[in-house]
Write the structure tokens for this entry.
Amino acid sequence: MTVQRVALRDVTLAERLADWTSGLQLEAVPAEVTAIAKRCIIDLVGVTLAATPHQLTKKLHGYAHSHYSAGPATVLGFPDGLSPPGAALVNGAAGHVLDFDDTSYTGIMHGST
């Protein structure tokens, strides 16, 4: 067994991924990949904001306020910030409240249909 293989066993997958992404330069990413990533981010932000008035999002926001501290992290669609874990909970769940996930571009179908 090589020293490199032994060393890799001591590094978690998350650490390896963080190392790779921290060294990634945007110029090295193909333009098509960048365009798709931008479209996906815009889609996620749009459906998250659209879910802001939904009862489930409001309840989750209230829950997060009672279980997490206020903080600098943005909660999309709300004026107040939360701690990063609290904001991640609300933003992550709100992005799926309306279930507008694009699942297959090739089949032109949607998971909600």
User: Anything to note?
Assistant: Helices lie at 3-9, 13-22, 31-50, 55-67, 84-97. The CA atoms of residues 59 and 90 lie 10 Å apart. The first strand starts at residue 70 and ends at 73.
